[in-house]
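2024-03-11 09:14:02 DEBUG pipeline.ingest accepted 1 chain
2024-03-11 09:14:02 DEBUG pipeline.ingest length=311
2024-03-11 09:14:03 DEBUG pipeline.predict start
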Amino acid sequence: MPKVGIIYNDSKPIACRTTEQLRQFFQSAGCEVLAIDGQAGILGHGKLSSCAVDVNDEPHRAITDLVPPGFDEQMKFVIVLGGDGTVLSACRLVAPAGIPILAVNTGHMGFITETYLSGLSEAMDTLLEEDFELEERTTLTVSLFEGERLCWEALCLNEMVLHREPLTSMCHFEVKIGRHAPVDMAADGIIVATPTGSTAYALSTGGPVITPDVPALQLVPICPHSLASRALVFSETERVVVTPATPNPMVMVVDGNAGCAVLPDNYVQIERSPYSARFIRLHPPEFFRLLREKLGWGLPHIAKPTSVELP
């Protein structure tokens, strides 16, 4: 019996209703259906007193431990109902199992979603026939260490952000990329982003847009206190180590919905993950069209009049 999954935003009534409709449709087609809400992929902030516990006072969970029971290599695909936050959470749940995702936008921006609810019904047969393309996106493994001890880790599709909490003063960071000598940065925070994340927080802080097929990462300082500190693009094969050079605790946030406290004796390691996010594309992906529709990139300027008649 074919197996399919549904991950939905349970705070949106339309997503809940659509989940039940999809469950009935796939069960009538002879499929086993597993449905969960996207909250399972959201990791809480760690306490400032110890990096080894999260908001539930549990030891850190490995990336693979978040894969829900039954969501395995036998699952044909997962339909995600929500906005970008739900999609990011879903990637954390299913990317280690290699399950393809069809992201359906029931939110606001929906930059990494593939279709809207209005186009979902015509996509059902395409899904069952597996007549679609797969687009793989780079993800990162973000790890927090205290000496040699691994305290916390998360899978990252967009970006890792390290900053003061609350964000009220400048910080110093020692940043080491690959074998290169470490550098010091003075800024309100630091972002390390994938090409997928280049259109998110990194874009808002002045970083460049990187097309998804480019094997690169970027480092972007937030409000740097130097004209020399600007965004840097480098190979995705390079490992990044960020060490806070400040006596105050910091907060690390991954993809906007997972995070932990970073103490003065901690450091953060970021490297390409062996698990790629696999997105179902019902049509050949066209990234520039997406930039134009969602962010207004490349829209023509309004023509100016060739002459002005004075009254």
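2024-03-11 09:14:41 DEBUG pipeline.report The CA atoms of residues 146 and 266 lie 5 Å apart.
2024-03-11 09:14:41 DEBUG pipeline.predict end
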